[in-house]
Hints:
Elements: H1 27-35, E1 42-45, H2 47-56, E2 62-67, H3 70-73, E3 86-90, H4 95-105, E4 111-116, H5 121-136, E5 140-145, H6 152-160, E6 166-169, H7 173-177, H8 179-188, E7 193-195, E8 207-211, H9 213-228, E9 239-240, E10 244-248, H10 250-255
Parallel strand pairs: 1-2, 2-3, 3-9, 4-5, 4-6, 6-7, 7-8
Antiparallel strand pairs: 8-10
Amino acid sequence: GLRESDFVEGKNLEVQRSGAQGDMSNIPAILQNYDNSDVDIILTVTTPVLTAASNLVKHKPVVFTCVTDPVAAGAGKSFTDHLPFVTGVGSFPPVDRTLQVMRELVPSIRAVGAIYNPAEANSVKEMSVAREVYKKEGVRLELAAITSSSEVLQAVQILAGKHIQAVLVPGDNTAINGFEGAVKGSMDAKLPLFTDECSALDRGAVACIGVGIHEAGQASGRLAGKVLAGTSPKDLPIQEVAKVELGISRKGAAEFGISIPP
């Protein structure tokens, strides 16, 4: 996306990268360090980082990506009425399509157990939408709240005792960080595991139905290019880019005796 605006790393663009190492308490210090440095722009990835940037950044423009609901994350009141120093790309997951695929793979499904962290605005919004979708479709949705990735295994074990037929791990940063716990809990309970985070598919899920981060990343890169070229973020409306991505693990499906429809 940046290259489309003629910003090429190693030529006329320098990129500094910092990760929170799976610990959200590290995010504020990283942002404040960038905000007080000589960088020209701060690019954020995921909802927790956008939420922190919206509250903490004072001196730099911010462009975000990989965010479920930018408004819920604190970027502003709407996609056009947002914080003057912030713009970026939202990508809401296809909650209804997720349930549809789960039903196609597990026709007997009557109840689904999902894990999420109530401290993540993205997960709260997604589960709120999911409640309505599942209720409308006559599928019971059981939720298990977690506060850290170490609680994922126990959360699945609790859900397994509520007569569910499948486990769902949404694009919740805390749950994804503890994905192996979800896999173990699901395998022990003989419950197929689904997720809307396709990057986690090869970690043990049966299927993923989510949004492609590649397209969202490109779109945010194009916005960042405009900001670097002089456009103020306040003049760039927030965008919604959510290309549905579907992946099914043949190995995972076979382990649960699931036949994949043509």
